[in-house]
Amino acid sequence: MFSKLGTLINTALIGKKVGNDKYKNSYYYSQNQNKRWVIYYKNNDASSVPPEWQAWLTKTINNIPTSDKLKYDWQIDHSPNTTGNITNLKDTNKVDKLYNSWNPTNKKG
């Protein structure tokens, strides 16, 4: 919690907002433009950052991404990684049928 508080204070003091993505994450850079960072909308989940913003954060590109970027027919929209999220396990009976833990029947001693 304190690390997020420090980030919010740092953002208020030296950050300049440059934009948001479709997941409502906010992107900032420092006044001297040396540092770039993201304030996540809900969870601190790096997989919620779309590829164009990830490229901007890592200084692969310098132009701020826009939403009117040309998309090809073969491109699909970015979606965050939801592996391990409890909402993915809607039918727990189905999961139980797919996976059974190992249970030793004969113990050798």
Q: What is the N-to-C order of secondary-structure elements (H for helix, E for strand)? A: HEEEHH
Runs in which pLDDT lies below 50 for 5 or more consecutive residues are: none
Oligomerization state of this entry?
single chain
Please state the average pLDDT score: 80
The shape is extended
Radius of gyration from the alpha-carbon trace, in angstroms? 21 Å
Number of helices: 3
Binned, the helix content reads 10-25%
- The fraction of residues in strands falls at 5-15%
Number of strands: 3
User: Which strand order does the major sheet show?
Assistant: 1-2-3
Helix and strand composition category: alpha+beta
Biggest β-sheet description? 3 strands, antiparallel
N/C terminus separation: 49 Å
Topology at a glance:
Blueprint: H1 2-14, E1 15-20, E2 26-30, E3 36-39, H2 51-57, H3 92-98
Antiparallel strand pairs: 1-2, 2-3
Please give a structural write-up.
The chain has 109 residues and is α+β, with helices and mostly antiparallel strands. The chain has a domain at 1-68. It has helices at residues 2-14, 51-57, 92-98; strands spanning 15-20, 26-30, 36-39. The protein has a 3-stranded antiparallel sheet. Strand 2 and strand 3 form a beta hairpin. The longest helix is centred in the N-terminal third of the chain and has 13 residues, at 2-14. The N and C termini lie far apart (49 Å). 6% of the residues are buried. The mean pLDDT is 80.
